[in-house]
Amino acid sequence: MIISDNLKIYVQKLRSSNLRPTKQRLKICQFLFDREKTFHFTVETLNKKINKNGASKVSLATIYNTVEAFTSAGYLKEILTSKNKSYYDTNIKSHHHFYDEGSKELTDIHYSQIQLSKVPIPPKGKKIKNLEVVIRIQK
Amino acid sequence: MIISDNLKIYVQKLRSSNLRPTKQRLKICQFLFDREKTFHFTVETLNKKINKNGASKVSLATIYNTVEAFTSAGYLKEILTSKNKSYYDTNIKSHHHFYDEGSKELTDIHYSQIQLSKVPIPPKGKKIKNLEVVIRIQK
DNA sequence: TTCCAGTTTAGAATTATTATAAACTAGAAA
DNA sequence: TTTCTAGTTTATAATAATTCTAAACTGGAA
Hints:
- 2 copies of one chain form a homodimer.
- Chain A is an alpha+beta fold.
- Chain A has helices at residues 7-16, 23-33, 43-50, 60-73; strands spanning 40-42, 77-79, 87-89, 95-100, 106-110, 115-118, 127-138.
- The first copy, chain A, has 2 domains: 7-79, Winged helix-like DNA-binding domain superfamily/Winged helix DNA-binding domain (Arc Repressor Mutant, subunit A), CATH 1.10.10.10; 93-137, no CATH class.
- Chain A contains 4 helices and 7 strands; from the N terminus they run H-H-E-H-H-E-E-E-E-E-E.
């Protein structure tokens, strides 16, 4: 699934967000973003995949720190679920999800697949940051 | 905020779901459902409120068991958030939420306030159980 | 080359939830 | 009413996810 070596791009990207391009962050960048399809994950799954067969390990704490930093920087998006675990998505564009209650799997719904014809006005002094739809499905 | 003593109604309601109407369950029913406005809570907040000034305490384990039982029975609805904590809502009707990222508070959005003009077809063999919109707001 | 703020790390601490197993109780049946 | 038992409650232990801590490490400016 790895497309190409976008290392220089990642270095720039990280610098532009005041994140030092460390070995660990670049490794995680390559794993997350060098792919065609978007990727859904939890810290647990990311940790397993990153440290599967690597010579040098990335610590769990760093995985947590990095995911948090990338989310704040806008490179990742947190997904809403009812599980007590954080889910992330490499697709940061406005889009929605199917959540399969049986398999507990998330699938993207392209933003064009859902159209809202009416949206409420936010409370005074607040503005809308984003709008997410989760459609729970079952057999 | 307590409206009236609906004890008999709760006894019937619980029986109809094969839940014995125990002291603890009835106490929780009265607290949750004897009110005009709907109520958002976590197990933590519910535990505090139920045990605030009561002569007899309801154990935390029972709060968990009861909330789980009431959710399965359809008396409560789990709310989708990005926090690692379960949120529940006494409003089980189809409706949506504002989630204030600053105060971390949830506000109901009546279902009529949001209108969808296009909804995707679920994957084969699956059907839609529900559809929830969360609008994140900030200053 | 030096230096230091930013980063990584292992492990401890914390928080939310689930599991366990003994004691209790609602309510059917005697 | 009393007896009996499956369902329920409870304190506590166990587990799981995340955050904290503080010591060691490092990118990159000077």
